[in-house]
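**Fold tokens**
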Amino acid sequence: MHIHILYEDNHLLVVEKPVNVPVQEDASGDPDLLSLLKDDIKRRYQKPGNVFLGLVHRLDRPVGGVMVFAKTSKAASRLADVLRKGDMGREYLAVVHGQPRKREATLEHFLWKDTKKNKVYVTNSKREGAKRAILSYEVLDHARNHSLVAVTLQTGRSHQIRVQLAESGTPLYGDQKYGEKHNRPGEQLALWAHRLEFPHPTTKEWLSFESMPPNVHPWNALQKETSMYAR
């Protein structure tokens, strides 16, 4: 499996995650991104023994786009701290059904995860285990009953974008879990990790990386912005 490397140095590995590949080993037994990258580093640098590669953040299995991994324990610790403090910029692109009521808005909900079902629900703040979820979005284009939106996360909750946009009446294209009434089986979830920004763990230089959705449906059905994202 070819994995596009966007950046690499002694401390970081930034890649474009392919869609439908789990980030780490799961019950499916399918090849996972973390193991594939460790094997690739071992091969390219002819490293004996185990390869260290720290998982800093996660993307849902159907989601593609930018991810950063730490190549040292020091980098892993510092990047985890950046993420915990909310200093890691994460912007996503999504295609949703319908058109959001406002061109720009901030959404705030309390979410609760049923770990047995691996599904997240909107709830009230008093429920045990409920966590505040905040995101902002901007509508970039609208055509053929779908909208292209840019989403910026302020918190990083499980399935956050999918749940909050569905709760707001605009479920994601292809989302079988939170938009089953609008989507057909087999449709690919249209959610892409477009931009990732953070300070380098040792030099403190501000780094910014982008990844573009593929030139396929439904991304290329939104004409006005297609040239910005297609490749």
Q: What stands out?
A: The chain has four helices and eleven strands.
